[in-house]
Design brief:
Layout lengths: L16 H13 L4 H8 L3 H13 L18 H12 L1
Protein backbone atom coordinates (compact mmCIF):
# COMPACT_ATOMS: atom_id res chain seq x y z
CA UNK A 1 0.00 0.00 0.00
CA UNK A 2 1.46 3.38 -0.97
CA UNK A 3 0.74 6.72 0.59
CA UNK A 4 1.09 10.32 -0.54
CA UNK A 5 4.05 10.78 1.77
CA UNK A 6 5.97 7.83 0.37
CA UNK A 7 9.52 8.81 -0.52
CA UNK A 8 10.71 7.74 -3.94
CA UNK A 9 14.18 6.26 -4.05
CA UNK A 10 16.52 8.09 -6.41
CA UNK A 11 18.28 5.69 -8.71
CA UNK A 12 21.51 6.89 -10.25
CA UNK A 13 22.11 5.67 -13.77
CA UNK A 14 25.62 5.43 -15.14
CA UNK A 15 25.84 6.29 -18.81
CA UNK A 16 29.06 5.60 -20.66
CA UNK A 17 30.75 8.46 -22.50
CA UNK A 18 30.21 6.61 -25.78
CA UNK A 19 26.47 6.19 -25.17
CA UNK A 20 26.16 9.81 -24.03
CA UNK A 21 28.00 11.27 -27.02
CA UNK A 22 26.15 8.98 -29.44
CA UNK A 23 22.79 10.10 -28.05
CA UNK A 24 23.72 13.80 -28.13
CA UNK A 25 25.00 13.61 -31.72
CA UNK A 26 21.90 11.66 -32.81
CA UNK A 27 19.63 14.26 -31.20
CA UNK A 28 21.61 17.05 -32.86
CA UNK A 29 21.24 15.46 -36.31
CA UNK A 30 17.50 14.96 -35.80
CA UNK A 31 16.83 18.43 -34.35
CA UNK A 32 16.29 16.93 -30.91
CA UNK A 33 16.46 18.55 -27.49
CA UNK A 34 18.22 17.93 -24.20
CA UNK A 35 14.94 16.38 -23.05
CA UNK A 36 15.13 13.85 -25.90
CA UNK A 37 18.63 12.83 -24.82
CA UNK A 38 17.51 12.58 -21.18
CA UNK A 39 14.58 10.38 -22.15
CA UNK A 40 16.70 8.10 -24.32
CA UNK A 41 19.31 7.66 -21.59
CA UNK A 42 16.79 7.50 -18.73
CA UNK A 43 18.40 10.37 -16.83
CA UNK A 44 17.26 13.83 -15.80
CA UNK A 45 17.41 16.88 -18.03
CA UNK A 46 19.70 18.75 -15.59
CA UNK A 47 22.14 15.81 -15.67
CA UNK A 48 22.36 15.96 -19.45
CA UNK A 49 22.79 19.74 -19.51
CA UNK A 50 25.47 19.62 -16.83
CA UNK A 51 27.40 16.84 -18.53
CA UNK A 52 27.28 18.65 -21.88
CA UNK A 53 28.56 21.81 -20.19
CA UNK A 54 31.41 20.02 -18.42
CA UNK A 55 32.49 18.28 -21.62
CA UNK A 56 32.42 21.57 -23.56
CA UNK A 57 34.61 23.20 -20.89
CA UNK A 58 37.06 20.32 -21.28
CA UNK A 59 37.29 21.04 -25.01
CA UNK A 60 34.87 18.49 -26.46
CA UNK A 61 33.01 19.76 -29.54
CA UNK A 62 29.57 18.91 -28.20
CA UNK A 63 26.90 20.08 -30.68
CA UNK A 64 24.21 22.52 -29.62
CA UNK A 65 20.74 21.03 -29.36
CA UNK A 66 17.45 22.63 -30.29
CA UNK A 67 15.87 24.43 -27.37
CA UNK A 68 12.40 23.43 -26.33
CA UNK A 69 9.91 26.18 -26.92
CA UNK A 70 8.96 27.59 -23.58
CA UNK A 71 5.87 29.41 -22.53
CA UNK A 72 2.38 29.15 -23.83
CA UNK A 73 3.13 29.09 -27.54
CA UNK A 74 1.04 32.23 -28.06
CA UNK A 75 2.46 35.19 -29.88
CA UNK A 76 1.96 38.70 -28.50
CA UNK A 77 -0.94 39.56 -30.79
CA UNK A 78 -2.82 36.36 -29.94
CA UNK A 79 -2.15 36.86 -26.24
CA UNK A 80 -3.46 40.44 -26.33
CA UNK A 81 -6.64 39.32 -28.12
CA UNK A 82 -7.16 36.65 -25.47
CA UNK A 83 -6.59 39.13 -22.64
CA UNK A 84 -9.01 41.63 -24.20
CA UNK A 85 -11.69 38.97 -24.59
CA UNK A 86 -11.26 37.80 -21.01
CA UNK A 87 -11.55 41.24 -19.40
CA UNK A 88 -14.53 42.50 -21.41
Amino acid sequence: MSTENEVKKIVRVRVSATDFLTSVCKASKEGGTVADVATELNVGIPAVSARMSVLRKKGFNIPELTRRSGGSGLNVEEANKLIASLIE
